[in-house]
Amino acid sequence: MEAIEGLLYGLGVAFTLNNLLAALVGALAGTLIGVLPGLGPTAGIAMILPLTYALDPTSGLIMMAGMYYGAMYGGSTTAILINMPGESASVITCIDGYKLTKKGRAGAVLTIVAVGSFVGGGLSVLGVMLFAPALANVGLLFGPAEFFALTAGGLLLFSRISGGTLAAGIFPMAVGLMLSTVGQEIVTGADRFTFGIRDLTLGVELVALVVGLYGVTEIMSVVESLQKQGKPIPVKLKEMFPSREEWRRSWGPYGRGTAMGFVLGLLPGPSATMASFASYRLEKGVSKYKEQLGEGAIEGVAGPETANNAAATSSMVPLLALGIPFGSVTALMLAAMMVHGVQPGPMMMTSHPEIFWGVIASMLVGNAMLVVLNIPLIGLWVSLLRVPNHVFLPIILMVATIGCYSVRNSMVDVYMLWAIAMIGYVLRKLEFQLAPLVVGVVLGPLIEKHLREGLFMSLGDVSVFYTSPIAIGIWSVVVIVLLLEPLRSLYGKLFGVKVKKLIPESSE
């Protein structure tokens, strides 16, 4: 199916009543999650994951995708109004956004952000439409050895590029791989590491893992920072219209942010966060008003917010075309597909075209919904920030617990939810990265599957995993990326030169 034909087919899928409703609910829920400081898209998707199991795979994924790019937009609201980002991709928005708010331009800035989110997301959908089929065709050349290199190498790559020190990424990744071995062994059906608990024969429930690791842990962190939160500034409808000068200065950052975000969304790591920071740095280098950046320049908001939405959209390409999640959000979406018996990858375009093209087209529809609905609803989102936390946070915890229990009707999952939440809170306080743990649990079974298939086909010859040209290329990239930081440090020590770090200290 050609790209144009596929997009038209996807629009037909996206415009069915169920899928339109799923996109609407996902976009609105994502905006709400983004507005609430500290939660972010991963926590939000983790909380609605049990609900998507009651839907068909297409509607469930459309709802999750809507929540993702909706949270990208919603996170900017608190960053602009109270100088507190709703999620990590909006951190950079605080710099200029809040200063523009103090100048009385909050409404205009929020409108610029809404339009930029639509531009970045919409143009990225066109890029996804063009690049995903080509990437899927390349994926048809992959066998067990190549997929093992892609999954195992991609996991190593993600654990390193997700931020922090080497140990901060590798240790959680190893924990995730160990947890992925719990349950029935895929070939013989023998129980592994269940300790006599029957509910563990199906493995560690991913919903309990991600809701505890992100949802409950994030809420704990929000409670810690309650005293630091400012009061939202009311925004009137007549203040929502930007001036002609503000529109003129925004179109350049829109274009540059879209290009930057789309490219970074195709790479492993916290793509939306990296895209927003990279876009801000780009604007500092090329903008005619670079001296105003940091003091309240519209470019410092338009570029980063466009970039993070573009990255959120293009991050669907590796997931749908290769079946490889490059972030915690796409890992959750992969888990949802696997629960429904859908395996993403090169064959998905032909085996499940309604999912492949439907999800892509829905992102275009959903981004349009965000513009139409969220500009009038900004006042409502601001009002939600006034709900007492002692009322709101317990409700979220109750919903998370009920949702976790409802997946398998097992109290073991509830106990696991709270145990993992405590562990996640400690890991976060110790500055470990949580995303590699989730990706390790999701990719662990796939790594084991491709390893066994490769050994079976080669009659036990391990050289099959590093002799094919594609596998050699993948492992070469992994080794280069893993050695970048040590080589940087060694170069600095040998020549006494301070070299800027290549790996970010924190991630989404």
Secondary-structure map:
Elements: H1 3-14, H2 17-35, H3 40-52, H4 57-82, H5 93-102, H6 106-139, H7 144-161, H8 166-179, E1 183-184, E2 191-192, H9 206-224, H10 244-265, H11 271-286, H12 299-314, H13 316-322, H14 328-339, H15 348-351, H16 353-384, H17 389-408, H18 411-429, H19 435-457, H20 469-495
Helix pairs in contact: 1-16, 2-3, 2-4, 2-16, 3-4, 3-9, 3-14, 3-17, 4-5, 4-6, 4-12, 4-14, 4-16, 5-12, 6-10, 6-12, 6-13, 6-16, 7-8, 7-19, 7-20, 8-19, 9-17, 9-18, 10-11, 10-12, 11-12, 14-19, 17-18
Description:
The protein is mainly α and 508 residues long. It has one domain. It contains 20 helices and 2 strands. Strands 1-2 form a two-stranded antiparallel ribbon. A hairpin with a 6-residue loop joins strand 1 and strand 2 (191-192). Helix 4 (57-82) crosses helix 5 (93-102) and helix 9 crosses helix 18. The longest helix is centred in the N-terminal third of the chain and has 34 residues, at 106-139. 54% of the residues are buried. Mean pLDDT is 77; it is low at 502-508.
Name the beta content range.
Answer: under 5%
Low-confidence region ranges: 502-508
The coarse silhouette is globular
The N- to C-terminal Cα distance equals: 35 Å
Range of helix content: over 70%
Number of helices: 20
Give the tally of structural domains.
1
Judged by helices, strands and strand pairing, the structural class is mainly alpha
Multimeric status of the protein: single chain
Order of helices and strands: HHHHHHHHEEHHHHHHHHHHHH
Largest sheet, order of strands side by side? 1-2
Task: Give the averaged pLDDT, no decimals.
Answer: 77
The major pleated sheet works out as:
2 strands, antiparallel
Q: What Rg do the Cα atoms give?
A: 22 Å
Counted beta strands:
2
